[in-house]
Amino acid sequence: MRAENPILQVKNLQVDFLVKKHTITAVKDVSFSVDKGTTLGIVGESGCGKSVTATSIMRLLPRQYSKISQGQICLDGEDLLAKSEEEMYKIRGTKVSMIFQDPLTSLNPVYTIGTQLCEVLLTHKIADKKQAFEMSVEMLRKVGIGDARNKMKTYPHQISGGMRQRVMIAMAMLTNPQVLIADEPTTALDVTIQAQILELMAKLKEDFDTSILMITHDMGVIADVADYVCVMYAGEIVEYGTCEEIFDHPQHPYTKGLLKSIPRLDEDTKILYTIKGMVPSMQDMPRGCRFSNRCPHCTMRCNEQHPDLKDFDRHQVRCWLMDGNC
Amino acid sequence: ACGNKDAGGESKGGEKTIVYGQGGAWNRLMPYDLIGMFSIMPNEKIFDRLCGFDNENIIYYRAAESIDLSKDQTVFTVHLRKDSKWHDGEPVTAHDWEWTFKTMAKPEFEGYGSRGFLTQFAGTDGSGTGDIQIKAIDDYTLEMHLKNPTTPEAFFGSYSYYYYVLPKHLLEDIPVDELGTCDFWDNPIGSGPCKFVSEKPGYEVVLEAYDDYYLGRPQFDKLIYRVMSEETLSSGLLAGEFDVGWNTVTAEEALESLDGKNGLHADLVDNKINIQMVLNNEKFGPEVRHAFELAIDKQLIVDSVLKGYGEPVCSALMPSSPYYNKDLKVEYNPDKAKKMLKEANFDFSQTISLGASNSDREKMAVIIQDCLKKIGVNVEIETGDATTLMSGARDGSIDMCLLQSTTGASPTYLMMDYVTDGVTYCRVQDPKYYDLHVAVNQCVDKDDRIKKAWEMQKVLYEESPNINLVDQDIYMVCSSKLSNITVPNNDKCWEWVVK
Amino acid sequence: MPRYIIKRILSMIPVFLILTFAVFILSDYAPGNAVDLIASENKMTEEAYQSLIHAYGLDQPLLVRYANWLLDLFQGDMGVSVRAKMPVMQMIGNRIGPSLFLMVTGLVLSVLIAIPLGVAAAFKPYSFWDNCSSTLAFIGNAMPSFFLGLCVLYIFSAKLGIFPGYGMYTAGTEGSLGDLLYHLVMPAFVVAFTLLGDLVKQTRGGLLEVLNEDYVKTARAKGLSEKVVIIKHALRNSLIPIVTVISLNIPYIVGGAVVIEQIFGWPGIGTLMVQSINARDFSVVMGITTMICVVVMCCNIILDIFYGVLDPRISRSK
Amino acid sequence: MQEVVRTIKDTKLLIQKENFFQKFVKHKMATVAFMIIAIEVIIVFLGPVLFDIDPYFMDSSSLAKPPSSVHLLGTDDIGRDIFARMLYGGRISLAVGVCSTLISFIIGIPLGLCAGYFKGKVEFLVMRCVDIFQSFPGLIMILVLVAIFGSSVFSMIIMIGVMGWIQPAKIVYGATLSVCEKDFVESARSMGASHATILIRHILPNVLSPVWILIAFRVSGAIIMESSLSFLGAGIRPPQASWGNIINAAQNATVLATQPWIWLPAGIVLFVTIICINLIGEGVRDALDPKMKR
Amino acid sequence: MDKPLLEIRDVKKYFYSDGIKVGKKQCVKAVDGFSLDILKGENVGLVGESGCGKSTLGRTILNLYPATSGTIRYQGQNIEKLSFKKMRPYRRELQMIFQDPYASLNPRRTIFQSMEEPLELFKLGDKGERKEKVIEMLNEVGIGREHLDKFPHEMSGGQRQRVAIARSFILDPKFIVADEPVSALDVSVRSQVLNIMRRLQETHSFSYMFISHDLSVVRYLCDKVVVMYLGKMVECADKKELFEHPTHPYTRALLSAIPIPDVHRRSERIILEGDLPSPANPPTGCVFHTRCKYVTEECKNVCPELKTLHGSHQVACHYAEKFYE
Ligand SMILES: Nc1ncnc2c1ncn2[C@@H]1O[C@H](COP(=O)(O)OP(=O)(O)OP(=O)(O)O)[C@@H](O)[C@H]1O
Ligand SMILES: Nc1ncnc2c1ncn2[C@@H]1O[C@H](COP(=O)(O)OP(=O)(O)OP(=O)(O)O)[C@@H](O)[C@H]1O
Ligand SMILES: [Mg+2]
Ligand SMILES: [Mg+2]
């Protein structure tokens, strides 16, 4: 599973939140790496720590009450966690960019699109005002916005959701970053628009050779865009491997369940598979495997001992069941 | 830069400026349309009057040199000063006076408050209009015909503040119905001791000394009247914002927190404030009224509310005056009062309303309430602004009301609201009091006057058409540069000593 | 935008009519009238009293008087003050300037103090600065302005003599700008202080809320420094509710100015209002009512325009 | 934002298990403030009964005397006991604050509710009224009203109460608008609930939380209003005491400078009371709305 | 064929904004002429892009919004003009389920209170009976009685949605509008709820209109699928027919755009240009022409009628026959 040419490497990441004097470990022991020019997809249910993982790469977690208590995040060989805040200012937006779920709220309503686009270039002193303008127009064209020059002068509320999301992508791509983190970039959009955006991202990836960290909870989207997949559950990676592997040979009961419980467009299902129960809350995690209370194959051991993420073929799986097989 | 520096200061090269803080605003600078005491002060500086009145019950003359009284005591022959000049340099003549009175009495000249005082003159009707009997005999002699016999002392003691002279030569071409509101009043020209400089209505009026005033040029260069809220007068004096202020510094405040501080000095003024309680004379007979008077502990009012700066009285006159009836003694006798009420079949179950407007009077009202309770009379205190209470007293919805007025030595101060024949506050209808007053007014001889005045006071005390409670001491607080302000209305500004 | 303003003005007309009518009726019910007051100061006969009542038209029916008043108003005439015999328009004209000057300065002062305080507080919630500014906000909210005014006056003017406490300029001078500002310090401070609490709270709360918004996260992800994020991206957005707070407070400022003008002898509309109510000079009261309506309306329209400047969503959709 | 909201939902198990009271108690300042107010209320309402003191009794042997064993807080210039006046004044000030707030809410809540729920004409009417009341300073309006109706405690309560209805009405209106958008209202309607049922059962309980928060601020606002009116000579009038008019003795420079016992206690108590009430308001806000505080 | 349970004829719903603009009122044509028959026991799926008027249609059918024009007949009775009061008896038989599990239960009322309310409103049974009924219904959706006294915020989204579903069934309705009841739920919870819906549909005899933007869910649950675009019906057919022979260009694009969770089946996506036009200002002619690849002059000018092809397959496209394969 070691990537040959990792541009982004996350090792044993653990993030803690301090909520009302309780420490909550939102993300634990997360490791993955992203190769140059590839897409890593992270899937998982709501609240499983996808966004926290992404945000901690940007080092944008709320400082007052969160802490990266363990691990390493290496971008292009540099340890981001060792950087000072000022150094991070220089890295954000240039080497790593991020786009968020909701295009409606991710653009500042009081500034024009142009201002917000140029701001990136001006802040990082990549270009002067005039150049910045031209570069932004150019980028807008690339993401498929016609009449880009005029659109520069519009305010976010004057353009549609799909267009806004494109502007977000343009903004992220302006500086030609090495890594683009997309946190559920299409969840708020309609399917037809989602298709447009996914298409666009695929094209940009080709053109710029950018590595993408794609976060979503839609297995369909993952199947569509990712080269590698991390499946997360309750703050942990439960399965990690190439896209084909995960979809063709899911090993972890959670991944299996997830895949089976989706109604398919291409075939009729009589009764959907269901994963019984619900995700345990962060306060009362099971002692052993975090999935144990919902797992159909749960054993004594699962209840007692916490499994590690183990290599298994071209897979990494966190499950005791795998032990026997290995 | 402020602080102990004197108000106004010598901002313009050694100019002497006096800033006068007034607790309320003048309504306008038009001497026949004055409302309230705060209006009189700036007006009477600009416009001249015939005479003024000293504390000693002595007339001092201003525009008049002397006043003769006819035999039947109804005609004044006024000899005017020959050196009086308008601020524009023209001489003031008897024709100005005649014109002024005649014009003010014309019916077209409508809607002005102080015209009510013209009713004293022959030829006018009850609202003060008509062919007023005032004539200029020659340039400097004026003849005034009155409705009732009187003496100059008595007459001007009551009314001198209301008759002014206006410049005929500037105003006679203006139609009478526009006279009251014409441009002249924006920049009035009079013949008084001060010239008008500028005015910000309701806030500030700036006057300057009139060099040619016949009684002498005032020592200041500028006199500025400013309105300030009553609450902040004393801090204003302390801060040197005002050189002198009128009217709400209490004696205690003047002596304890102002005198000697920041160059201020407080002087006792001869006049006093007389606090009286008017009662509904229709509702309460003489016995009941007097019983109330006996039941009120006037000394307590002096001690507590006035902090001892005052004295209990039983007449509207100052006790030091020769006209004050020395036989009358302040009496506090609740038992007797109770007996009197019982004899008068007073209905003890009723609740009497007592109106009081400012905070001192409210405190007095509390004491009165307490006193009357001791003889079994229930009193309920009504508070409100003066206007509300006045109209309440007038229409009878308030039974008793506390009022204050300045007092002096002259028996004219005995003339109270009940004396006028028309609208009275507390429905005094007994003509006896009016007749008594006229009798006093008619006496030319001083001893005679004193006798009549004593007699009148005795009647007033025994029947208590209104109850005189206490006389309150007044202190004038001035900055160090100003002294010799004696009377509370301080009209003799040419005598003020300015450093 | 102009259309919108016209619409706003039109929508204020019924408000204005109802309000003035209410005040008109109320003033009619008030015990005593201007003539009573004149009569109480100047002894007069019943006849003279009645002739004055007639002269001022107080014997006409209420509705007739209101209609006349309205008609006159549309011709730019607010009537004549019974007391001062001066056109009400002119009286108000003399007073409105100082009043507005005081209120606007107070407002600006308070905004200038409150926003940095609020920003400092939001920058590091629960820090020393935050505690300081919220304490200040608390005191500002809890301190009755008259009491603050009296205390400030006593300490700074009467005792220390640092600031002048009366009027707009030194008596006897024409009042240079410096002198004016010098006199303005204390009243403006008191006006500012009464508003401070609300503004600091709103700035802090609004900013904290905005800091949670996605676009702030976007701005951070762009690599902007925290200062730029707060000042450029967050503050601008949180100004919008601040403008709302200000516009809601305008009547309070006008009302509070009555007290403050009274204390500091400021020749403004407030003192005139109190004088006129006490004197039952209702043509002036009506005039001031009208004036206040107009001022509040203008302020609101100005703030609306300001909204538009701050928030393109509003200006573009007209 | 999304994250935080979700976080709150997640951590809800922690938070929501505590009831309102427990959450309120967490706010230490508010708890202290609450206790102070509670004690104050007890003293003010039981004090006169227990201590047998008369706020109107004038002790002519002790005029404007500093605190002593006979007069705990001294006497005013006509010998009335300051402590007694404070207690009675407290009754009146608190009564004015609480009762006028009550009136404001009794008027404001139904109006806001109806305006937000029925929309159309009702909304238009109510909102125009709000405009009217909002575009005119309440203080000035009350000054005019006082000139007419006088300034007894009763009329003071009514006037301040009536002038104060906009704030609750507006808050309730806003909340109602947003609650009406919620599906459960629609769902109640789709189940055939009547307007009254929807308003009382579904909307009212859900719009009350901002109202609870507002209560405290309105009470303190009303107390300040009363004292400001007293200052202008239009508030509660002597002989009746209120904190406002006790403080007004400080208008006299002598009293201000040399007899602080006359006005200082009332000033401090008024100030502390308002601060405490505001703190309680903050506490209620934090307890009802965990978003504001982490 | 029976008489349809619900006949919807040319229903229109316009929203007029009388905001701050002077002069002409702006009008949003949320639903602009919609006709459909729903038979007893038939499950209709309604799909379309966000903002195309699905929810509005659902609410208009239930007379929660007054229709601007058109008729809605429920069991032969016109209900679109009924007043709030007159509508009450029908409410019992027409129910609605909402999208947001966090908003569809009154946060101040316990689960039991919320569940009991419909029974109480229609005065059904005494206290004990009601409680029994509530417990029974909750059982059906897999919620135990220990949850009765909980407040909504003490439950998870899936549980709440199940309660909401149970509540809409408690009066034994004949027709239910389900407005995206699962789109706010997580994948693993969604399948639980979908299964429950499907089971209920088998055990109770009622019809419903299932609104969704997710065709795969519709496919799982419904018999008939209606595709909407900008306030209009563009295609309507039986499930099988529709998925095998999607005809309208929009339907085809929609079908192709849905990502399939299968790495080997990457479908050829048809990418539509541009965005959904605003319903305040819909395009002339065919509403879809601005984004259609096959647009002709005719499309731009003439609004296509619904054509019936092959049984009950209806399509609103000028070239329906050509596209039908
Ligand atoms: N600001 C925060 N404060 C406290 N806890 C937080 C915060 N942000 C996230 N968490 C915790 O971290 C966990 C993971 O949250 P995260 O936002 O990463 O989930 P997610 O996978 O992105 O979910 P979604 O798909 O809903 O976006 C949550 O359960 C939450 O408890
Ligand atoms: N109450 C309303 N007032 C004004 N316009 C409305 C109202 N409700 C909906 N609309 C408008 O009607 C159109 C259709 O809205 P509707 O909610 O029915 O869409 P939808 O298909 O349900 O969308 P979604 O999939 O996002 O739920 C939208 O453009 C919307 O702006
Ligand atoms: Mg997330
Ligand atoms: Mg919808």
From TrEMBL, chain A:
Biological processes annotated in GO: peptide transport
Molecular functions (GO terms): ATP binding; ATP hydrolysis activity
SUPFAM superfamilies documented for this protein: P-loop containing nucleoside triphosphate hydrolases (SSF52540)
Protein name per Swiss-Prot or TrEMBL: ABC transporter ATP-binding protein
The ABC transporter domain, residue ranges: 8-259
Localization: Cell membrane
Any Gene Ontology CC annotation: plasma membrane
Membrane-topology annotation of the record: Peripheral membrane protein
Keyword terms: ATP-binding, Cell membrane, Membrane, Nucleotide-binding, Transport
Pfam families per the UniProt record, alphabetical: ABC_tran (PF00005), oligo_HPY (PF08352)
TrEMBL record, chain C:
Gene Ontology biological-process entries: transmembrane transport
Gene3D superfamilies: MetI-like (1.10.3720.10)
GO CC term (a single one): plasma membrane
Record InterPro entries: BPD_transp_1_N, MetI-like, MetI-like_sf
Keyword entries, A-Z: Cell membrane, Membrane, Transmembrane, Transmembrane helix, Transport
Boundaries of every ABC transmembrane type-1 domain copy: 96-303
First-listed, main subcellular location of the protein, grouped into a coarse class: membrane
Stretches of the chain forming a coiled coil according to its record: none
Location relative to the cell: Cell membrane
Highest taxon in the source lineage: Bacteria
Listed transmembrane segments: 100-123, 135-160, 180-200, 239-264, 284-310
Membrane topology: Multi-pass membrane protein
Similarity comment: family membership: Belongs to the binding-protein-dependent transport system permease family.
Record's protein name: ABC transporter permease
Organism: Emergencia timonensis
UniProtKB/TrEMBL annotation, chain D:
Family annotation (SUPFAM superfamilies): MetI-like
BP GO terms, sorted: transmembrane transport
Transmembrane segments: 29-51, 92-118, 139-166, 261-284
Keyword hit for Kinase: no
InterPro entries (alphabetical): BP-dependent_transpt_permease (IPR050366), MetI-like (IPR000515), MetI-like_sf (IPR035906), OppC_N (IPR025966)
UniProt keyword tRNA processing, yes or no: no
Keywords: Cell membrane, Membrane, Transmembrane, Transmembrane helix, Transport
Similarity comment: family membership: Belongs to the binding-protein-dependent transport system permease family.
Protein name: ABC transporter permease
Originating species: Emergencia timonensis
UniProtKB/TrEMBL annotation, chain E:
GO biological process: peptide transport; transmembrane transport
CDD domains documented for this protein: ABC_NikE_OppD_transporters
MF terms in GO: ATP binding; ATP hydrolysis activity
Hydrolase among keywords: no
Pfam families the record matches: ABC_tran, oligo_HPY
Superkingdom in the source lineage: Bacteria
PANTHER family: ABC TRANSPORTER, ATP-BINDING PROTEIN, TRANSPORT ATP-BINDING PROTEIN
Name recorded for this polypeptide: ATP-binding cassette domain-containing protein
Organism, as annotated: Emergencia timonensis
UniProt lineage: Bacteria, Bacillati, Bacillota, Clostridia, Peptostreptococcales
